[in-house]
Design a protein that fits this description.
With about 160 residues, the chain is α+β, with helices and mostly antiparallel strands. It is about 25% helix and about 30% strand. It has one domain: 2-Layer Sandwich (Alpha-Beta Plaits), CATH 3.30.70.560. Strand 8 and strand 9 form a beta hairpin.
């Protein structure tokens, strides 16, 4: 069984409903959602769109990382995500933050997620469910990065699942 941590975000329509639908979809077939962080309202990164709702989930899966990436992309598509420009508003965004203790540099996937250590909307919810997990390639735990954050996007905690 593989362990993945996924960041989820939405800033179009009923944002909480989109995240809940994505979590339900992640908890099916070859995957099971083991933990879910609180939900957070956050400022958008790189655009002037509506605020986001963000969360992080721990997912156990029998899929390898590439199969899991395909699974995640199929969920995004099913929930209405369309290809657009970088940082465009979106119904749902699911990022694979960590996958086991692997370091992956693939054309369509970088694990650990290349910007995760700089984003409070990733680290704070991830710390809730996995603060002691070491980020591969960095030699530091998730919680060790919190004190060094330069950018702050979280506005408030809005929902606990």
């Amino acid at each position: 069984m593989n362990k993945a941590y996924c960041g989820l975000g939405s800033n179009i329509g009923d944002k909480i409903a989109f995240i809940k639908k994505a979590l339900e979809a992640l908890d099916s077939g070859n995957s099971e959602v083991a933990k879910i962080s609180s939900f957070y309202e956050t400022k958008p990164l790189g655009n002037d769109g509506d605020n986001y709702v963000n969360a992080v989930a721990e997912v156990h899966t029998t899929l390898d990382v590439y199969g899991f990436l395909d699974f995640v992309k199929s969920i995004e598509k099913k929930l209405g995500r369309k290809k657009s420009y970088r940082w465009a508003p979106r119904e749902i965004d699911i990022d694979i933050l960590l996958f086991n203790d692997e370091i992956i540099g693939y054309e369509k996937l970088t694990v650990p997620h290349k910007e995760m250590t700089k984003r409070d909307f990733v680290l704070v919810p991830l710390m809730e469910i996995a603060g002691d997990v070491e980020i591969p390639g960095y030699g530091k735990t998730v919680s060790a990065f919190i004190n060094n954050l330069q950018n702050h996007y979280i506005l408030k905690k809005i929902k606990t699942v």
